[in-house]
Design the sequence.
């Protein structure tokens, strides 16, 4: 891959106090996530925010930073979950190794889907990713001896884990949250590292102007494929976390509605911002959780709120907030 | 903290400390809710989605079961509370809601769910945490050893016993049978049940067509089904799908050629579509209010439901809500509290007759052994009133012989 030496060229605005704080975006994000279970109505909801936050963060790399609108992210979310569940339940792999295997296999899946889909652009890219993700859905539906088919994958409950020589009760919601948060922290560090690298500048260059990036000598096709795989890898880690959290993998996880929900979450939180995906996931899930306790017609409210955001806050909650605080683009 | 007192600057560290302190303060009241005496029953059910009508009936009946116990002073002086949650007919959502019910609301048991996949998800969560779960939706899988646990109880009928009872009433040796099946676990299990019953009776299978779950348009399937020239068409789907499929089959003139049979004939769907469309359709049921003519318990269940719901009558899936919660509360009465092992023991020994006739949970798989009704939808001129929907063709008394044997299900015998 061609390495640009122009990572430093983007002019950064003079750092304000708040801006300087955002230099430590990973640490700050972890700090916020660390207190999340005590702020939300339930621990199960907090874990879901973590999981969807990681999935949407991976998707943001593709959509927000590279500008590729995929409608098939559920394939990697689901693949991570299924591979984790199958590795633990069917082959008796230890949970930690299962997560590593699942992320590896899902990245391979992302490579295959990426090779096919990144050849297309615009609406065709969206459609091809959607179609390929549906293919994954039907494979999972039909291969019911492996996946449990429509009934979902079951029988791989992880109830105790061994951490640095200590036995930890993984059914305890607080323990579970902080173990899974470590995975989320790892994913955040990884993504921050990608964005800060020269490669991060390349993908943003592709988003801004693909022709110009090509003219500058960057291998656009290969960069797109690599970012597709990285995005798939991070989202699949979210899937692994879901499998460990729920101890089931529902078939719906691979449904295109899940892909649509991921797109909604990133738009709600703010594409192109580092912490936006977590804000998006949290606000979507809280809205759903809280409103559906009041009324079975929660979808009307969530839909209306989403439309209002698209119309009036196209940068999402977090993007708009950063704009209001006057924090520069490069520091998100 | 700043060491010199000159400039009181808020550092990142103090800001973070302050933030966590205030968060901890907010969380305080949640820590204090421990030992209130109420018995809490979690009730996840799909209040939104294509099974919403059936789910609402389940909630009403479950609330009635709780109310009747509370009116008599509760269980050992403790009031019972039903915590209803919308699972959106989604297994992941149901698992999350069940986790919330167990971890946050500290429920003593869970009853509910209205789909094969969803009940298995709830069961996976409850059995790992040693919480009793009474499922009130049809499934064969939940009886099998792989998904069973000592905390798992299945109050609903299962596809095997339902299809066998319906097939006995409708199929004869040498008949040709075609199937229209919803392409998900419920449909597949019903199809498997029908085929097994067909084979025992000696009826021939002439073809089967799968349709997507939640399909609105069945017009492409009907000509294909009619070209198979069957004597009986079995439509194995649920909720709104049942009404849509039967309505379109009738539009195509299917009924002139063959008899329509469904594994479970739904009170609400018959009401939604009307008597002309359903006329002559035969299906199984766990409950029909008209049983009150033959059963005292049905009469008193109907009366209690009418009193609580402004004269309305209870429906089939509603009755599951009543007997599921009712049997659990009866076992808690026997166990005199919520101690899980004692309640499990009491449920295993319980003989209960809440809605129709005596029932009990079979020891090996905790399947409720109960009677199965076979109903035929009445034609409009034969209806005595708006609620006189069905004629009872058969009322098969519950027995272990109706179920697959414990060894077939993989249980140690």
Sequence:
């Amino acid at each position: 891959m061609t390495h640009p030496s122009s990572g430093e060229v983007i002019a950064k605005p003079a750092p304000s106090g708040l801006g300087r704080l955002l230099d430590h975006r990973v640490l700050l994000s972890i700090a916020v996530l660390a207190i999340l279970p005590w702020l939300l109505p339930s621990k199960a909801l907090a874990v879901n925010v973590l999981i969807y936050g990681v999935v949407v963060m991976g998707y943001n790399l593709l959509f927000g930073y590279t500008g590729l609108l995929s409608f098939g992210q559920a394939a990697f979310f689901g693949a991570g979950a299924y591979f984790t569940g199958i590795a633990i339940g069917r082959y008796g792999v230890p949970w930690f190794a299962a997560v590593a295997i699942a992320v590896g296999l899902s990245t391979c899946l992302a490579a295959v889907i990426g090779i096919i889909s990144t050849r297309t652009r615009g609406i065709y890219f969206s459609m091809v990713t959607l179609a390929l993700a549906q293919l994954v859905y039907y494979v999972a539906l039909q291969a019911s001896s492996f996946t449990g088919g429509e009934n979902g994958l079951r029988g791989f409950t992880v109830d105790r884990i061994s951490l640095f020589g200590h036995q930890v009760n993984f059914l305890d919601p607080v323990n579970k949250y902080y173990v899974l948060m470590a995975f989320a922290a790892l994913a955040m560090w990884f993504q921050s590292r990608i964005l800060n690298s020269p490669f991060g500048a390349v993908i943003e260059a592709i988003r801004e102007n693909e022709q110009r990036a090509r003219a500058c000598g960057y291998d656009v096709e290969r960069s797109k494929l690599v970012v597709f795989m990285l995005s798939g890898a991070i989202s699949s880690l979210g899937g692994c976390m879901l499998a460990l959290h729920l101890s089931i993998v529902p078939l719906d996880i691979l449904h295109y509605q899940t892909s649509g929900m991921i797109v909604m979450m990133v738009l709600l939180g703010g594409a192109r911002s580092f912490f936006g995906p977590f804000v998006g996931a949290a606000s979507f899930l809280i809205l759903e959780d809280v409103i559906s306790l009041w009324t079975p017609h929660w979808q009307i409210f969530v839909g209306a709120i989403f439309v209002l955001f698209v119309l009036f806050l196209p940068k999402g909650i977090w993007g708009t907030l950063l704009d209001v605080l006057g924090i520069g683009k490069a520091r998100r | 903290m700043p060491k010199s007192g000159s400039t009181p600057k808020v550092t990142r560290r103090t800001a973070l400390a302050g933030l966590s302190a205030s968060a901890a303060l907010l969380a305080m009241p949640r820590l204090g809710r421990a030992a209130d005496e109420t018995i809490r029953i979690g009730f996840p059910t799909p209040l939104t989605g294509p099974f919403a009508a059936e789910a609402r009936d389940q909630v009403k009946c479950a609330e009635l079961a709780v109310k009747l116990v509370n009116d008599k002073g509760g269980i050992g002086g403790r009031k019972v509370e039903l915590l209803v949650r919308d699972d959106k007919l989604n297994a992941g959502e149901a698992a999350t809601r069940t986790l919330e019910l167990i971890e946050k609301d500290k429920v003593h048991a869970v009853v509910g769910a209205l789909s094969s996949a969803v009940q298995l998800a709830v069961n996976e969560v409850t059995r790992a945490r040693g919480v009793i779960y009474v499922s009130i939706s049809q499934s064969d899988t939940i009886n099998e050893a792989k998904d069973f646990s000592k905390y798992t109880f299945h109050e609903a009928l299962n596809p095997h016993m339902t299809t066998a009872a319906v097939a006995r009433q409708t199929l004869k040796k040498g008949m040709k049978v075609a199937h229209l099946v919803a392409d998900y676990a419920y449909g597949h299990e019903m199809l498997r049940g029908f085929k097994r019953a067909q084979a025992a009776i000696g009826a021939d299978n002439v073809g089967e067509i799968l349709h997507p779950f939640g399909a609105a348009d069945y017009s492409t399937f009907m000509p294909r089904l009619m070209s198979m020239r069957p004597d009986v068409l079995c439509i194995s789907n649920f909720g709104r799908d049942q009404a849509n499929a039967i309505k379109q089959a009738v539009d195509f003139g299917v009924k002139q050629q063959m008899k329509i049979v469904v594994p479970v004939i739904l009170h609400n769907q018959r009401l939604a579509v009307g008597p002309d469309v359903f006329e002559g359709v035969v299906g199984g049921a766990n409950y029909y209010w008209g049983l009150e003519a033959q059963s005292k318990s049905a009469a008193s269940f109907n009366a209690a439901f009418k009193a609580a719901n402004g004269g309305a009558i209870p429906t089939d899936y509603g009755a599951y809500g009543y007997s599921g919660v009712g049997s659990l509360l009866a076992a808690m009465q026997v166990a005199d509290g919520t101690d899980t092992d004692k309640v499990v023991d009491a449920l295993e020994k319980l003989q209960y007759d809440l809605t129709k006739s005596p029932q009990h949970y079979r020891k090996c798989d905790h399947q409720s052994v109960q009677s199965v009704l076979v109903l035929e939808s009445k034609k409009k001129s034969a209806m005595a009133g708006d609620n006189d929907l069905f004629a009872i063709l058969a009322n098969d008394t519950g027995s272990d012989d109706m179920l697959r044997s414990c060894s077939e299900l993989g249980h140690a015998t």
